[in-house]
Write a structure and sequence with these properties.
CATH class: Alpha Beta
Helix content: 40-55%
Radius of gyration: 17 Å
Order of helices and strands: EHEHHEEHHEHEEHH
Number of strands: 7
Number of domains: 1
CATH topology: Rossmann fold
Shape: globular
Structural class: alpha/beta
Strand content: 15-25%
Low-confidence stretches: 204-209
CATH superfamily: Flavodoxin domain
């Protein structure tokens, strides 16, 4: 399962673009699931270290719904709107609160690929910095950050929404960066499946041309 995490508190461009990314992955044969912060009560991490001693978070809120998904996911797509030149506070809260899951299983995210999407109201409003912040989370946890590659999607998918739903979906350069990043993300997932199949001696669960 590929887990999409949307860090936008609004039903606007970020959530819809993430949905498009997950649809692209489903078309390539991957199961997906979307977790959105919108309408949820998720408190900031208190850094109280309760989770280090007890292996679960002391805060009983709707973040508890995400914890089981983190372990099940084979890969992650994290999408954030750009607020004040960087990722949204809601995105950062979710990332910070993963500390409890990692306290229970420090290697639960290791070697899992992750891609990032940043949606800004301005063409150059901080999208690259927001992507870097998400990639830092991937790197710190031993994950595999996946970019779209050079020529248009260096760190991931970036969109100019013009602060409207339609603006993000009509951003051709943004859609091109999304297609490139999704393609490389799917290729990485397929490569990992091939390696796992070779290690176990079992059949490889990837059809030719499926990515």
């Amino acid at each position: 399962m590929i887990l999409g995490i949307c860090g936008s508190p609004r039903s606007m461009a970020t959530e819809h673009i993430l949905g498009r990314a997950l649809q692209m992955l489903e078309e390539r044969g991957f199961e997906t699931e979307l977790f959105s912060v919108r309408g949820r009560n998720i408190s900031p991490c208190r850094h109280c270290d309760y989770c280090l001693k007890n292996k679960h978070c002391v805060i009983n809120d709707e973040m508890q719904e995400l914890y089981p998904l983190l372990g099940r996911a084979q890969g992650f797509v994290i999408a954030t709107p750009v607020y004040n030149g960087s990722m949204s506070a809601q995105s950062k809260i979710v990332i910070d609160r993963t500390r409890a899951a990692l306290a229970a299983d420090p290697v639960s995210l290791r070697h899992k690929p992750g891609m990032a999407i940043a949606v800004g109201g301005d063409r150059m409003g901080g999208q690259e910095l927001a992507l870097q912040q998400i990639h830092s989370f991937f790197i710190l946890n031993g994950m595999i950050p996946v970019s779209g590659g050079f020529f248009g999607a260096n760190l991931g998918a970036t969109f100019w929404s013009r602060d409207t739903l339609e603006g993000g979906m009509q951003d051709e350069e943004g859609m091109r960066s999304l297609r490139k990043t999704v393609r490389r993300f799917a290729e990485t997932l397929a490569w990992l499946r091939e390696k796992e199949g070779a290690k176990s001696g079992g059949p490889v669960a990837v059809k030719p041309g499926s990515v």
